[in-house]
Task: structure prediction
Amino acid sequence: MKQRRLRSSLFVALISVACTVVGVGSQSGTTPDFKNEFFRRCNTFQGDGQSGRNCSDLWDLFTKAFVNRTTCEIDRSDYSDFLNASISTPTVANKAMFWTKVYPFVYSFTGSRSQSGKYVTVVDLLPGYIMNSLSWCWSQESNDFNYTSCPSSRDCPGGKTASNSFWNATSKNFATLASGVVFAMINGSVSSGAFTNNSQFFTVEVPAMDYPRITEMRVVLVHNPLISFRESCSNFTLKTLSETLAAKRINYTCEEDPSEIRQLQCQLYPEYQATEYCSTSDQRSLNRYKLSTLINAAIAVSLKTAFSI
Result:
């Protein structure tokens, strides 16, 4: 399974109450060269020269959901044909990673060398892979994509924009594919709370989870050490999450800032390294990681030089 690897110089997701997927929210317009980017990603995901979904057919099914439609009247059911045609995975067993308000760090984690292959996220399946971080909307006036401005989900009753409805549909579909033990990375540094109704995790994904298809949710609660507010695994909105899952007979476990999360944060964000969050064992682990990286690089250079003589 392909892992979408994203990096960011700032821990944007842990210091803002952002939408759960880039492209859902205030937009300046359709992403430039949108159609070509759709085809490029579709072909890249499947591998050039390999048999798979026909990208032209998928494009037709995708655009059918919103072309010549009123801007604020796109329902998530309008993407059903596209999703059914593009997803071949019957189930995601014991690997599904959900998340809320931790974009893009969650993809830095799931795509890291130590975690590669352990998790599957919504953007590791073809629809999410293609549309991740893209924006789109249709203009009936010009009979073309609107490259100037697109409405945000707040601009339309029920948030029924082309992109928001797509991500609602894709998120629900992903939740129905998940089985066994599922994982959720959650931002514990949002003052309004992590499990609230301004996220697809709350409104779409958790409601689509049912027992016995899903038996347990393992939450990884991540904090930003530069923010004083800290939600714990057992209070505030996480208590609501645990109670919601209990009502569904789904077990709930939660761990705050596990070492592999801290190490990656301290590696990616230099501003964290002077804090207690990155001290002691985590800092020593980070130092060992840096040292091993330097040693491996030196060995690679030496081998290259030896074979070139």
Observations:
- The chain has a mean pLDDT of 85.
- The first strand starts at residue 92 and ends at 93.
- The CA atoms of residues 19 and 198 lie 8 Å apart.
